[in-house]
Design brief:
The chain is an all-alpha fold. Helices cover 81% and strands 0% of the residues. The protein has one domain. It contains 6 helices and no strands. Helix 1 packs across helix 6. The longest helix is centred in the N-terminal third of the chain and has 43 residues, at 35-77.
Length: 187
């Protein structure tokens, strides 16, 4: 029975990794996370929780989905991210549970900040953003920074990547990735 639980846990981890990989890919390519993907992940999370924990597993999974969803709703309301990102965090929360969803959301916000700064820095040093604003044709560093920040603010940011980093970091911190490797015979 313990082996079946370990295998079910490994299946949960594999499912969330596959969902995150596909969501990140879609977000980078199309700037969208399909509702069908988020719904399928939510249903899988709830279903696997029911199989492993019965009614208490379902309650735990629903609580995780609500915490994950609620953690990112304020950023959606402030137009800092899309609805698909919020739904992806909710679906991930259904697999992680409430404490895991909260940790993953916090780590995703940190990862998003780091990735955002990285994008901004890359844009600051790109030669194509050197704007002619002075008589000599050389833009001041301050003017380039302001122009770059203005451009980057309007740019779509594939936040599913940051969510994936937060969720994978949570799985690693909880030892769930090791459980997956053991179930696969790798570790």
């Amino acid at each position: 029975m313990v082996e079946a639980t370990i295998e079910m846990h490994a299946l949960l981890v594999a499912v969330v990794l596959a969902v995150l990989a596909f969501a990140a890919r879609e977000d980078m390519l199309r700037h969208r996370i399909p509702n069908s993907l988020n719904l399928a992940a939510l249903i899988l999370g709830l279903g696997l929780a029911a199989l492993t924990g019965g009614l208490s597993g379902i309650v735990h999974s629903i609580a995780g989905a609500l915490v994950g969803f609620a953690a990112l709703v304020p950023f959606y309301l402030l137009r800092g991210m899309g609805a698909g990102d919020v739904k992806l965090m909710g679906a991930s929360g259904a697999i992680l549970g409430p404490s895991g969803a909260l940790l993953a959301a916090a780590l995703a916000l940190i990862a998003g900040g780091v990735l955002g700064v990285g994008i901004l820095m890359r844009r600051l040093i790109e030669p194509r953003l050197r704007l002619d604003s002075s008589p000599s044709g050389e833009a001041s560093a301050a003017w380039r920074a302001v122009a770059t920040i203005s451009i980057v603010r309007k740019e779509r940011f594939p936040y599913a990547v940051a969510i994936a980093v937060g969720v994978v970091a949570t799985l690693w911190l909880r030892g769930s990735l090791v459980a997956l490797f053991v179930a696969l015979g790798i570790g």
